[in-house]
Amino acid sequence: MVFAVATFIAQVVSIWARPGSTTIVNGIINAFIIAVTIVVVAIPEGLPLAVTIALAYSTKKMYQDQCLIRVLAACETMGNATNICSDKTGTLTENRMTVVEGWFANTIFNQDEFQRASLMESVKRMIAEHVSCNRSAYLVRVDQEGHKLERPTIIGNKTEGALIMMIQNWGFTYEEVHQEAFHPETDRVFSFNSAKKRSTAVVQQKDGTVRIFCKGASEWILKDCTHFTDKNGTVAPLTADKREALERHILSMAENALRTLCLAHKDYRSAAALPQGWDENPPDNTELILDCIVGIIDPLREDVKEAVRIAQQAGVTVRMVTGDNIATACAIARQCGILTPTGLAAEGPTFRKMKPKEVDAILPRLQVLARSSPDDKFLLVTRLNGYGIPETKADWEKKFKDREGVTWEKDRDNLLPGYREEWEESRPEGGQVVGVTGDGTNDAPALKAADVGLAMGITGTKVAQSAADIVILDDKFSSIVKAISWGRSVYDNIRKFLQFQLCVNIVALSTVFIAAVAGVAVPLNAVQLLWINLVMDTMGALAKGSEMPTPALLERKPYKRSASLISRPMLRNMLCESAFQLILILILLFAGPGLFGVPPSTYCDEYEVKRSSTMWDLTTNLKSPTGQFTCSDFNKYCRNK
């Protein structure tokens, strides 16, 4: 606007400074047209086009890299992510689980002995019934064309699939066992309860008794057990020494990066002996009989170590958020390179009871959150980026209205996720940019709270995918790193276009303004300025918006939330480039005719012929009866005459 007003004033002044050059009305109109054109040209209208092209192009390319973009802006946001909170199973690991060792009916079988394990048939049968009834997974043994698969495909929970494969190796067919033992009319299956850390099946036996099958987290099931199944199939009391030995064995397996799982049962004399309300809340947390503890291996993906290293090199903090035992989680996190010697690991139940200030103290070093629930993941995300933190006292009280005895005055500094004023005071630089992975329905709140929600395409539920911004089609962590690279490419491409466009605009507008002030004919008229604007906007946006990412993009830190779109290096480049171009153009404008020996005018000379001339008949010899003829007319009628 300043350029436009200054140029308009300079051109209006030149009307009186050079009398006879043009009429006052025409001069003012021409000055006004140039001023309006400058306003149009000065605005980089091509920026929205460049952004759209960059996002659309990267969306197509990211799909080829197994990243399905559901929210277009997530492409650019992902490039500046500072934290990735990743699940373990299926993202960092292959999600191909296999039982490789365990404790079965008071007998320990290590990985070398497991394939040759010898158990009583009654014990095997009981475990087979448990696995067959208390499950939601199943096996697919043939492909779509009817050919037998080399390894059956597990549909559903892969941990349950590993147990099914185990009893299959023992000689049991889970469909047949389920058909014999489970009766849908009387029996019930309760899906995994994240509060109890177990899934349960209530099955009526042929002799009229009722058996409760419980399967879940080792430490949770073990603390509810009072007896165990001995190697001969009898039930023995679980003493303190025996419990301690089992806990040591669980820890040993967990430290070897094995997921541990306990299977237990509880018997009732009849259906009438079941407590009231068992069909809503099964009696599965007291006086259990421990049957077996299995160690399940889930190998790391081949590319995960390198992908984690690249992400960390790019300034992204990678955190593992998992429901596994903390020892298992730490062992796998070390293998991935996530857990460093100075890093911290915490458990969900401990994390959610911490004060906001205590959480802030460990957040920079927190790299593993084990035994976490979806609520713990949500709390972690909100504390990192500030999403959903209560803004006012009324919002805080509404959030905790179901917590008896909790008041704003007494507890606002003691309960997560805190409140807005406290959160902002502890983070003067602003919150983190957080990407979160999730595959379950319960992960939807955390995916929504994240700056970029990343749902799994293979194992993810429809609810999780609908809540996410990006769907990782192959469930690999390396695809997340590719998304970061594309996001940075989009951001840098937009900056490159902006630098290019503003540089062109500065030179064009400065040239017009200086020419107007100097009193010479404007070198670029309105049409020419608009043409430059059109070509530079469209062609520049197309060229700059479609540049591919390079490995160098992941060798720098992410930009802060508050970072300006025009950085200091960009400003320096624009000023230097504009100065060079402007000096060159001004030399051509003022000294060009003398340097190259051409007439000092931008237009061809016109020769005016008066009507009283006897040498020309304007009505017959010239096409235009206006009293003027141009250079082309002169060459046609006067050359060599």
Explain what the structure shows:
There is one protein chain. This protein is α/β, with parallel strands linked by helices and 641 residues long. The chain has 24 helices and 21 strands. Strands 3, 4, 7, 8, 9, 10, 11, 12 and 13 form a nine-stranded mixed sheet that branches. A hairpin with a 5-residue loop joins strand 8 and strand 9 (210-217). Helix 1 (2-17) runs antiparallel to helix 2, helix 3 runs parallel beside helix 21 and helix 5 runs antiparallel to helix 6. The protein is elongated and about 120 Å long. It starts with a helix and ends with a helix.
Brief descriptors of the model:
alpha/beta, 641 residues, elongated, 24 helices
Write the layout of secondary structure elements.
Layout: H1 2-17, H2 24-42, H3 46-64, E1 67-69, H4 74-79, E2 83-86, E3 98-104, E4 107-109, H5 121-133, E5 138-142, E6 148-155, H6 158-169, H7 174-181, E7 188-193, E8 198-204, E9 210-217, H8 218-223, E10 225-229, E11 235-237, H9 240-255, E12 259-268, E13 288-297, H10 304-313, E14 317-321, H11 326-336, E15 344-347, H12 348-351, H13 356-362, E16 366-370, H14 374-385, H15 393-399, H16 408-411, H17 420-425, E17 434-438, H18 444-449, E18 452-456, H19 462-467, E19 470-472, H20 477-518, H21 526-545, H22 568-596, E20 607-608, H23 618-621, E21 628-629, H24 631-637
Parallel strand pairs: 2-14, 2-17, 10-13, 14-16, 15-16, 17-18, 18-19
Antiparallel strand pairs: 1-19, 3-4, 3-13, 5-6, 7-8, 8-9, 9-12, 10-11, 12-13, 20-21
Helix pairs in contact: 1-2, 1-20, 2-21, 3-20, 3-21, 5-6, 5-7, 9-11, 10-20, 20-21, 20-22
